[in-house]
Amino acid sequence: MASFFAGVLAALIEFLARIITAVRAIWDGVGPIQAQRIYFANHTSNGDFVLIWTVLPPSLRRRTRPVAAADYWLSSGLKRFVGREVFDAVLIERDPTHRQTDPVSQMAAALDGGSSLILFPEGTRNTGEEHLLPFKTGLYHLARHRPAVDLVPVWIENLNRVMPKGEVIPIPLLCTVRFGEAMRLSDGETRDDFLARCRAALLILSEKGPVT
Amino acid sequence: MSPPVEFWQLLAGVLAVLIFASLIAGILSRRAGPDGADPVIENLVARIRSWWAMVALLTLAMVFGRAGVVGLFALLSFAALREFLTLTAKSRGDHYALVGAFFVVLPMQYYLIWIDWYGLYSIFIPVYAFLFLPIVAVLRGNVENFLTRVSETQWALMICVFAASHVPALLSLRIPGFEGKSILLIAFLVVVVQGSDVLQYVFGKLFGRRKIAPVLSPSKTWEGFLGGVLSASLLGAALWWMTPFAPWQAFVIALLIAVMGFFGGLVMSAIKRDKGVKDWGHLIAGHGGFVDRLDSVVFSAPIFFHVVRYFWPPV
To answer: Which GO terms describe its molecular function (chain B) (predicted)?
Structure first.
């Protein structure tokens, strides 16, 4: 029963995402193929991972789990159901003082289970004027623990205008999701170098232009 | 209200043209060879495929009569507005105004068309939306580029909603001696204006030499314009039997529609250049976005509507 409702909700969420954003995937460096990946993207809206999830072919979608904040997704019954049953999110505790498990080992465990991940390395929603916030270190630690998994930069264009922070009703505008070339942690690469390289890869994608 | 017999005769003609076009495109792609990927031919094949889908959709809507046509154009307006505002909407201060444009103004305009309230639907957007949306925007207190933002939203509504809604509005014209057939006015408008686009494309590709507006649109030529517009006008004259018009009247009206359609394409091209994009969207394979396909329709529909309403006054 729960999985039936999860299926209905998933279809509804995808339908709404497509009506509102007519989202289009541009595979600009990697293809939509069955491969284990860590998709890392810019984060401006709660709908970000929904768009990535929507443009993935169903066979990839089933094996791709978003990494999301436990405090948000466990805050109500419906969110809990959507987060766990529809998106199968890896829920991590953002506040270190409340942590019982380490987020990086949670993500590594999900990778070991064969899943791909969707990750927002800025750590929080970017609601300011800044194009892309500095990255938190989680992406580096994950890459160090699982160096054989491809990291794929993903730039989500326009969703911040569809639903700016604090607004309830979205305005329908076209969005694109651009997937860039896969990258990995190099031998001897320092944390800061690696994060700068990842951030630069995302920024390059963002400059490739939006809709057409 | 099932479509009159003339509708099915016209549809048979359109299908014959589509089959012919598909055959030509098939021959051209075969001649190009399996790996001779000529982008022009590929685009042609994609365009023709999309035409099949568009003809099927429009036919389906017309078979459902008034509800089908009003519903279809409401959805087309939604898709067009979504594309238009993607290129303009930038400020958070406009959020409520844009929510209003999508979820109040657009449904309201089509509701007024549906209940056939000519006195209000012909002024609702230019008067009420024009005055109230800036009020909604100004309440947010953000004055940066205010006039630009307000005008762009206003223009988006005029083009994507107001003008487009004049296509289903044709259903409300009850011309004496033409009762129950007003859907044929829509069929006439769509065939002439889209026929003109296609014929301009064909004449341009076959004979195009002199560019007509190199800055605005590198693909538009004098040969395409003249050949396309004149042949579309002749096509309109040849369709006089499904209209309330005499053949010469059908020719003049078709000429007007085709010329307006041409300039519609030019104006919308200028906006695309200004915003630095090639197409409005990506949802119609080979054509671009909805606005790319509708640009000529929206410029001709209100003029066609008012010309018919003036010279063939409804009872």
So the answer is: nucleotidyltransferase activity
Residue B95 touches chain A, beta carbons under 8 Å: yes
> What phi, psi does A180 have (nearest 5°)?
-100, -170
Q: Which pLDDT score, from 0 to 100, does residue B14 have? A: 95
Return the domain boundaries, chain A: 2-206
To the question of domain A2-206 being in CATH 3.90.1150.10, the answer is: no
CB B252, CB B308: distance < 8 Å: no
Q: Assess contact for B32 and B41: CB atoms under 8 A.
A: yes
The interface predicted TM-score of the complex, written ipTM, equals 0.89
A158 interfacial to chain B (CB closer than 8 Å): yes
Which chain B residues have a beta carbon less than 8 Å from that of A208?
Answer: none
Minimal Cβ distance to B281: which of A161, A169, A174 = A174
Closest alpha carbon within chain A to B100 = A171
Q: Which two tokens stand for residue B226?
A: 């003249």
Indicate the residue of A164, A167, A174 with minimum beta-carbon distance to B86.
A174
Chain B contact set for A169 (CB, 8 A): 99, 103
pLDDT single digits (tens) B234-288: 999 999 999 999 999 999 999 999 999 999 999 999 999 998 888 888 888 888 8
Residue A88 is given by DSSP the state -
> Which runs of consecutive H residues, i.e. helices, occur in chain B?
5-32, 39-63, 65-88, 95-100, 106-114, 118-121, 130-138, 146-157, 166-169, 183-207, 222-238, 247-275, 290-311
